[in-house]
Amino acid sequence: MHLAANWIATMDAAIKNPKSSVYDAIIKQTLAHYQRRFGNTPGFPALDWRLFKAQLLVESGGPTNPAWSTRPMQIGNPGDPAYEVLRSGAQGANLIISVPLKMDIASKSISMPDLNIRAAIAYVFTMAAKFHPRQVIGNAKVERVKVRPGQSLSSIAAAKHTTIQDLVQENPKATGVLQPGQILNFQTAHMAIVIAGWRQITPEFLARWYNGGGYDGLGDPAYAAKLKYVLGKLGS
Hints:
Structural class: mainly alpha
Largest sheet: 2 strands, antiparallel
Number of strands: 4
Number of helices: 11
Order of helices and strands: HHHHHHHEEHHEEHH
């Protein structure tokens, strides 16, 4: 996609500006935090901190723009739905946002640049996560149940609010037809929303899910191309 010459000139100057590296550390620290927390979950995306720096430069316009020292990632601007998602914990954000970040969002101004960046990255991960309902063990305490005539693992799991998988794991010898009077161990479970996978975080992903396309399709049509341009410059 063709990029305007004045925009290219602005970005080239921003990248060369020594102040363009002032937020590098907070980006790297924040991504390391998510790597530690979710790195072992299925399909966790490959992370390139330079992509988030490119996003920061595209969103803010660079160090000479007033947004650089207030809301460099533009999250929290009037009409922005992302900030309300984080504040309310909606769309799975409550599973993504750390307790310190929740406290900062509730008590501090989103116009603090470090918080703005942390909040923006949290929103990116919220949009990248694939959430699904799943039964999870809610209590580590092992309880016991006596099998009644006609009961099966599935009927016991339903009656005792546990899972067939847990019954099999806790009672490896309980195969085939259950015998009345047989004692089975189990742990209670409940339905919860869990992270079942991830979307890869790419320029196209950010264009759709961060720049507005994920809501109404009215985002900047050149957004992905802009990210790729800046990313290419950062990598050279």
